[in-house]
Fold this protein.
Amino acid sequence: MINNLNEPLEPAGEMVAGRTATLPKPVEEPAPAPADALAAEGIPSRFCCFVTGTDTEIGKTLVSAAILHTLVERGQRACGMKPVAAGAEMVDGELHNEDADMLAAAGNVHLQQNITTPYMLRAACAPHIAASMEGVTIEPVPIIAAYAEILAASDAVVVEGVGGFCVPFSDTFDSAQLAEQLNLPVILVVGMRLGCISHALLTVEAIVARNLVLAGWVANTADPDMAYFDENIEALAARIPAPLLGVVPRLEQATAANAARFIDLAGLPGWPSRGVGTT
Ligand SMILES: Nc1ncnc2c1ncn2[C@@H]1O[C@H](COP(=O)(O)OP(=O)(O)O)[C@@H](O)[C@H]1O
Ligand SMILES: [Mg+2]
């Protein structure tokens, strides 16, 4: 388990929900410095997160891109990472994946694609199948190494998971283990449609069982005709032990900027409180 990559991630006293909130306070420690004070002393506050979802095609990429968009607006060097992408086409001699492209467009740190997506697989299917078709074994070390490179070049990193939370990569590695190894606060995107409550609560259980911090959740309107939308949000909010960061309606144009208007990350660990465009 690699823990030290994300050292500045949890400025003491900033955690709003999840595991950190319940930790007992050490008795003799001096009062923790707020993130701003750390920045003033030259230690940059840093926002990094792992975005997972209740399913595939429910808005993880849209929400990840929206977060990157806001970070860039706040003057951050922000980079998206899609460590494993399944479904890529060759364009101008380079493999392209829609998610990876959208994250790259929303961020402002541009690294080689094999850093931001160490495993770019052609087939649009379950990653362990796509990988085996190409004779590739998806392993943690290249992903962790690439993440460290991104971290070195950026103030903020948004890592988008693959599909739901527990997607197999190989016989011995899956996306939940990747989240554990990166040890990032998790943002859960709930695709609002019938059935999402159980999907969401099972995902929360899986996140908490791995001792990961659930930083918050975003309700994204996957089905614009969902009955009792507000009541479903209420039921989720009552059961998810983390703040609701926003409700994204069905957008006419599903762009990062449009979705960003509905997501509020203020108060999350490492969230930049100052910078260009901040209030
Ligand atoms: N709130 C929304 N309004 C309109 N379209 C959306 C919304 N959320 C997602 N979409 C569209 O649904 C599709 C799947 O979204 P995406 O973010 O790629 O999901 P995931 O990353 O979970 O697979 C995309 O075409 C996206 O533009
Ligand atoms: Mg996606």
Remarks:
- Residues 46-81+139-260 form a domain with the Rossmann fold fold (CATH 3.40.50.300).
- The radius of gyration is 18 Å.
- The chain is about 35% helix and 15% strand.
